[in-house]
Amino acid sequence: MRRCEVAVIGLGLMGAAALDALLRAGVDAVGFDPLEPGSSRGSSHGSCRVFRRFNFENPHYTALSDEALYGWDRLAVESGRQLLIPCPILEAGPPGSETVRQSRQAALDHGRDTPLLSGAQVNARFPAFALPDDWDAVVQDGGAILLTQVALEALRARGRAEGRIRTVAVTGLEPGGDHVLVRTAEDSWRAERVILAAGPWMDRFLPALAPVLTVTRQSVGWFAPTRPKSTALGAFPIFIIERGRDDTVYGFPDFEGRGVKAAPHNHGPVVDADAWEPPASDAELAQVSRFLTELIPGAAGPITERDVCLYTNTRPSAEDAGEEFIIDRWPGSRLVVGSACSGHGAKFAPAIGERLARLATDPGFEIEPFFRLSRYPAFA
Ligand SMILES: Cc1cc2nc3c(=O)[nH]c(=O)nc-3n(C[C@H](O)[C@H](O)[C@H](O)COP(=O)(O)OP(=O)(O)OC[C@H]3O[C@@H](n4cnc5c(N)ncnc54)[C@H](O)[C@@H]3O)c2cc1C
Hints:
There is one protein chain. 26% of the residues lie in helices and 28% in strands. It is of the alpha+beta class. Strand 18 (326-329) and strand 19 (335-339) form a beta hairpin. Helix 2 (61-79) packs across helix 5. The longest helix has 19 residues, at 61-79. The protein is globular, with a radius of gyration of 21 Å.
């Protein structure tokens, strides 16, 4: 029987960030994950994610973005690798767009009065775009392309160097009085606390979470630019465009020479975490192709590459409309739960990792109310 103070189950971006925070603090921690960075399962794979400083989803998130940015910068220095490529963030929608309004408000709350732009002004600044002239838009600074694959490798580097990563699946958890028994096919560990960061597999460990989480299949495509100069980094922003309900597309400049990565942000079909296969089909990417043709013609060439990734979304609670995170202690246990996807968690990973580590090691630490399980009646 092996022992550790904290076992971290799942080393995607959230678990890897938690393990890194624990090891940095000198905690005797071990992380478990059968997948290596680069595997195409779960939620953290692929080369990039959007880092936004000003978040339209929730006014609390700007402070979290700022905290995470500090973490990413520290990790970049420690690893000697670039993790963020600065890039403006364009958010746009029909007149009166809530996304644009909330994004501007998030900036205003932090002392930035970001001007409201028209579609015509966006098209003049970014020639790949053809937004309707009367649309609302905002271009935020403080954004970046988060290089996810590099970030995941960097977040796991300390654990790897210190021999604290087990590339194996956890097959069972058994609560004991003063410990949790963590079983794998190879051995068993007696852990004082366990952080569960299993992404779309969370309900395998905690079936009671299933009613508040849905896992959806999200298709991603890379599109050959029709006007390559207009979609290059520097000439083209990260964009999030909400044309209407269930019609939001986001994307990146062609910073890798692979084309413009673009994907729908509205939810794909509900799936089991294991019962799906890539690639994304033409039908799944048809909405994005149409969207680009109509609104971003400079990026609307043929599909060059495809991917599928999973969102783990929270359902609406007593206090929010859903698509938020759960970061909390599991009641009456030695478990800590870190479910931070809903399609926008990656950017926060260092800040969320710190919270998971503190929940596991500091009995006096209380998580912010908007992350708590108790916002769901079943856990109140
Ligand atoms: C298409 C897509 C686009 C996104 N875009 C953005 C974006 O632009 N900006 C942003 O901030 N966020 C974005 N996100 C969200 C972000 O990627 C997620 O918030 C993040 O990846 C969640 O990481 P995770 O560690 O919780 O889950 P995962 O990465 O899924 O990690 C869970 C890990 O648990 C492991 N595991 C499962 N079962 C076991 C077991 N039995 N034993 C041991 N380990 C186990 C798995 O192998 C896996 O590695 C996007 C997500 C997707 C899918």
